[in-house]
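Reminder: ligand-aware prediction takes two inputs, not one.
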Amino acid sequence: MTAPTAAGAAPGAPTATAAAVQVTGVGRVFPGEGGRSVTALEHVDLTVGAGEFVSLIGPSGCGKSTLLRLVADLDEPTSGSIAVFGRPAREARLGHDYGIAFQQAGLLPWRTVRANIELPLSLHGVGRGARRERADEMLALVGLTDFADHFPDQLSGGMQQRVAIARALAERPSLLLMDEPFGALDEMTRERLQSELVRICAETQAAVVFVTHSIPEAVFLSDRVVVMSARPGRIAGIVDVGLGRSGSRDDALREDEAYFAAVTAVREALHGGADGVPSRGVETR
Ligand SMILES: Nc1ncnc2c1ncn2[C@@H]1O[C@H](COP(=O)(O)OP(=O)(O)OP(=O)(O)O)[C@@H](O)[C@H]1O
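Here is what comes back for the chain with adenosine-5'-triphosphate:
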């Protein structure tokens, strides 16, 4: 899928001027046992610009996944509204404006790795040759060329997650929604995929909303890091990472003083100060 353009856009189609994601006054209350409800999100306002990389970080249970699911139209807010490229989340989902890679890889067990990656392309009428070519590129990108004809249950959890990432990226979506996609990977693979992700995003101009528990990961990847507070989830602060466009970043950045300074800024925003006590569910290494 290409970046949205205003020229010749069909009515209701995404426009170049609209933010990738606009969250306005969103709340989500889940009904709980014995009539006790759970307020997962409260008064959340967030704008993600076209092409911007934004991470969500915060203590376990603060509503990061809930917010991502609302943007993906996998759930509905109790209050407020969500627009994706200027149109309601439902329309954006039906218009395939975004790719998703969530914690559970969500692969179809009866399809091979290659067929899983090709699935969104075939659903959108991409021809066989072009599908194959793109799947080959994606397989190489995630280091699974030799596993193209395997089935998901023949792969490790980390490998399955890499297939899910390849599938989400196959269409070069204008928006990627990612919920801890690298959480199950070993550190070396994780860093390699982080670098690949920033490169791909620069290449495709995709905006990304990325949920993670890792402060360094959030800093390496993001233009801005959104820090959420413990339940009910609210935005406690937003750190402008200030390390240049995320697409121009490479591994040398991980040794850079500006990078360490940004990691410290996010850590302090998470703890509401420099007391250095990690919140539950947040990795500081
Ligand atoms: N379908 C649901 N029904 C009831 N409660 C829910 C549901 N989904 C989420 N919650 C509750 O909403 C709160 C936020 O959950 P969510 O999964 O969004 O948090 P999170 O920040 O992504 O957590 P983690 O970092 O542990 O993955 C939690 O208290 C959770 O129990």
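The pocket of adenosine-5'-triphosphate is lined by residues 30, 38, 40, 58, 60-66, 231, 281 (CB under 6 Å). The chain has eight helices and ten strands. We will return to this case in the review session.
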